[in-house]
Amino acid sequence: MADPARPLALAAGLRALPAGIWALGFGSMLMDISSELIHSLLPLFMVGVLGTSLVTVGIVEGVAEATAAFAKVFSGTLSDYLGRRKQLMVFGYALAAFSKPLFPLAANIDWVFAARFADRIGKGIRSAPRDALVADLVAPALRGAAYGLRQALDSLGAVIGPLLALLFMFWFANDIAAVMWVAVIPAFLTVVLLLRYVQEPVRAGSGEGVRPPLRLGDVRRLGRAYCWVVGIGAAFTLARFSEAFLILRAEDVGVPLGLVPLTLVVMNLFYALCAYPAGHAADRLDARRLLLLSLLPLILADLLLAVADSPWLAFAGAALWGLHMACSQGLLAKLVADSAPLALRGTAFGFFNLLSGLALLAASVIAGALWQQFGAAVTFLGGAAFAALAALGLLAWRGLHGEED
């Protein structure tokens, strides 16, 4: 029987979150509307319009994400060094906004690569300071809820973006470049929103001046529990390659070109609906058990996508993929914040995202090569195998709440 107090507890958690968390969430939502409107069509644009190979798609996606991951290390460390996070975060969002017009202007794969590079550099600059700022704005007991809310609103944007892509693909008669121009508007609205409504916490800009440069001894202070979080995050990313392959799989099993963005709509709808409840649960339940449970829908998603022979199976796989993301991403962010010292929180998120980005580069290139050489089924079976390895790593993890936290 369902617990009648659970909805009240969820609502109480939402009311306890400060306005800055909501502004960060809505900023993420607007930028994701822009990004996902483009990304839901970009693989089709690269393969169908520009004639790019699947291996090249994997390389472009992987290099773009790895570039973002490197930028996250420097921006996270710089935000710790300066004691300020908002300026770096807003600059990253602005750079991403200015990259959006490059996509519809692209005449060849080099233009797409440049646009993705600039977009992901912007993401890399903003992500670690933003994630650290979330932790700065709330008490530790509300971190799971705060990260869950941001992820939920971000995923809501990832639902709206592909829906807009569907609408404008119909409106513009499948002219992908014309549809991509629509994405420019919410990207610039994001920058305005964050400038106006996000306030730096007093502690983060308390007049202490800049901090000493990061030293090797500081990195060692992150501790063994943090290293386990980084390792598990990288393993999860290896098991979950670029979402570009979800889009290509949907087209592969017969989804009409104009309806392919529905794949990301389905995935992100489940992500948005489940992210906040999962984050709220992470403040109260055992983290390792929750992470283990989050791997089950990913394994099922990969198996479904491996055998899919109809659009419905592809959509079911995308839904399970979104459920996995909801149950894992906010929780991993909370674990990074919980395991890192306050003075190194930006650095901790930077290194976490670096390793995850490198894992995504490897996973995306491997996925593209497997698909081109052996077909889609082997690609998704490989993802299921990596997910099983991540589960084994979790079973060996004893440092979640140990003495080095």
**Order of SSEs, N→C?**
HHHHHHHHHHHHHHHHHH
State the share of residues found in helices, binned by percent.
over 70%
Q: Compute the number of helices.
A: 18
Strand % is: under 5%
On the 0-100 scale, what is the average pLDDT?
79
- Largest sheet at a glance? none
Number of strands: 0
* Poorly predicted spans: 1-6, 204-210, 399-405
Secondary-structure class: mainly alpha
For the termini, the CA-CA separation is: 36 Å
Estimated radius of gyration? 20 Å
The best one-word shape is globular
Secondary structure topology:
Layout: H1 6-16, H2 19-39, H3 42-49, H4 54-82, H5 86-99, H6 102-105, H7 109-137, H8 143-171, H9 176-181, H10 184-197, H11 216-220, H12 223-238, H13 244-252, H14 262-282, H15 287-307, H16 311-339, H17 345-374, H18 376-395
